[in-house]
Structure formats: structure tokens, C-alpha cells
Design brief:
12 strands; Rossmann fold; globular; Asp/Glu_racemase_AS_1; six-stranded mixed β-sheet; Asp/Glu_racemase_AS_2; alpha/beta; single chain; glutamate racemase activity; 11 helices; Glutamate racemase
């Protein structure tokens, strides 16, 4: 059994790690969290695969040296590119949890859906394979979202709205839901919902990734546990969460070091339907939608 509190390292280039970190903090606040951001190297999506592998492996080894019991990679690009070599380097002693877009639950609804992702992910063999495995022929549309992750990273409301408008304009009207295929996107769900037709559902994997990390550690959910510490690492150096990250409720809550409440988290998970008065499930589908 892992000692208490367990220490979990989350590795990403930027703020895409916030939703998963927020869910971990909400579900199991006594986990000690290490947030590894890479302000000098971001965005990783424009880098070569070899560069990303080296960066993630180096950060993973540093995280273990600093006491990590598990590593979570809340980044689609890094998960696709570097999780296999990272697992080869550190498992089975320490579990590694990757991020996979929520294509499987979207496909299971039987309804048409879109996958919003970065241009690199949209054109990747990885995403094509996911859609072939979990969506029926013609059920899914891949929608590239140029500039959206960068706008979220900059916490630029106007740029976010512009990028979301472009993506919404590319989304076929037949789509009943959208899979958020970049871990940055849950931070701006209100903007996304506002740009989509009423009743459109959102699928996000950040809660599922947090739950998988707890399972790999053999820990049950315990939201009432006493909060442990949160450490921030910027390019390997310990520091503080950038002020711009604190413009998002999750970032502000993590920076305070206390609990992360449901109100701090994106309203994209079906478990929110019991507490969010402005959401409801689509008949026959495990989604949330704004009505």
C-alpha cells in the first residue's frame, strides 16, 4: 500500500494539466500534487516527437527523484508521443496514467458528434484510430481548433471567443455533442457552450483520468480528506503557479492550497447533473447540456 499521502506528479507544457489536477484535488484532497509546467518549452504540439519524448522522460525522472508515487500525463500530445517510453522507464514501480479523449463514451451514445482538437491531433493517426475503434462509420467529425489552446493558455477572452467561433462554425449542425480533445479546452466550457446550438453535450476525460490515477494507486475517492500540499515546478525549478493560471477557478483554488469544489470544476461530467441547476442529461445519452 502506498504511504499516505501519496504524491502524484502531473506533467504538461502548460495549463492543460489544471482540469485533471482539479479533479484529483476534489476527489482526494489528501494527495500531494506536483504540477510540472514547461513555460520555456511550450507549446509541445509544435515540437518534434523526439524532443517531446526527451522532455517528458527528463521531467518524469525528476518527478520520481522528488518523491512522486505516480505520474499523470494530462496532455494529449504528450500521451500519444511519450507515454510508452515513459512507462518503459518507470513502471511497474510507479504507475503512469495517460490522457485519452472521450471518444468511446461519445461513440456509445449512437448520436453524431464532433471531436475538437489541435490541428496536430486532428490530423494524427492516433485520433483516426480512436474514431475507427469507437465511432460508427460517419458518426464523428474531426474539427481542428486553430489557436484555441494558445488563447486558453494566455487567458485571453477575446482570442478564446474568436477561436471558439471558428471551431463552432466548422462543427456540422447534425452533431449532438462535442468531445474536448485538448486538455486546455475544459477551462473555457462556458464559451464553448455559448457558441454551440442549445442542447449540445460536451465530453471531457479529465475526471476519468483522475479516477484512473486513484485506481492505479489503490485509493478510493475521499473528498472529505484533509488537504495535502501542492507544489509547482516551472521548467524543473520550484515556484508558484503563474498568476495568469489563477484567472481560472481551478488555478485559483490550487494556488490557495485548499479544497477544489465542484463550482471550481468544468461542468462537463455527468456527475455534475445533480448539483448544477443549469444542466440536464440528453435523453438516452450520458451527457451534460446547457438548456
Amino acid at each position: 500500500m502506498v504511504r499516505q499521502p501519496a504524491r502524484v506528479a502531473l506533467i504538461d507544457s502548460g495549463f492543460g494539466l489544471l482540469p485533471t489536477a482539479g479533479w484529483l484535488r476534489h476527489l482526494r484532497p489528501d494527495l500531494a500534487l506536483d504540477l510540472y509546467l514547461d513555460p520555456e518549452g511550450m507549446p509541445w504540439g509544435s515540437k518534434s516527437s523526439a524532443w517531446i519524448v526527451d522532455r517528458v522522460l527528463d521531467t518524469g525522472r525528476l518527478a520520481i527523484a522528488r518523491g512522486a508515487d505516480a505520474i499523470v500525463v494530462p496532455c494529449n500530445t504528450a500521451s500519444v508521443t511519450a507515454v510508452v517510453p515513459l512507462r518503459a522507464a518507470v513502471e511497474p514501480e510507479r504507475p503512469v496514467v495517460a490522457t485519452v479523449p472521450a471518444v468511446k463514451p461519445a461513440g456509445a451514445t449512437g448520436l453524431p458528434f464532433a471531436v475538437w482538437a489541435t490541428e496536430r491531433t486532428t490530423g494524427s493517426e492516433y485520433q483516426r484510430d480512436l474514431l475507427e475503434r469507437f465511432a460508427a462509420p460517419g458518426q464523428a467529425d474531426a474539427v481542428a481548433c486553430p489557436g484555441l489552446a494558445r488563447a486558453v493558455e494566455d487567458a485571453d477572452p477575446a482570442a478564446v471567443r474568436d477561436a471558439v467561433a471558428v471551431a463552432a462554425g466548422r462543427t456540422p449542425a447534425r452533431c449532438r455533442s462535442v468531445v474536448l480533445g485538448c486538455t486546455h479546452y475544459p477551462l473555457v466550457v462556458d464559451d464553448i457552450l455559448a457558441a454551440l446550438p442549445p442542447g449540445t453535450g460536451l465530453h471531457d476525460s479529465s475526471r476519468a483520468v483522475a479516477g484512473q490515477a486513484l485506481r492505479r494507486l489503490g485509493l478510493p475517492e475521499d473528498p472529505a480528506a484533509e488537504p495535502a500540499g501542492v507544489r509547482v515546478h516551472l521548467g524543473g525549478d520550484e515556484g508558484t503557479l503563474p498568476a495568469i493560471a489563477c484567472r481560472y477557478p481551478i488555478g485559483a483554488a490550487l494556488a490557495r492550497g485548499g479544497r477544489v469544489t465542484r463550482d471550481d470544476l468544468p461542468a462537463t461530467d455527468e456527475s455534475d447533473q445533480q448539483t448544477r441547476p443549469d444542466t440536464a442529461t440528453h435523453p438516452g445519452a450520458p451527457l451534460l447540456r446547457r438548456v
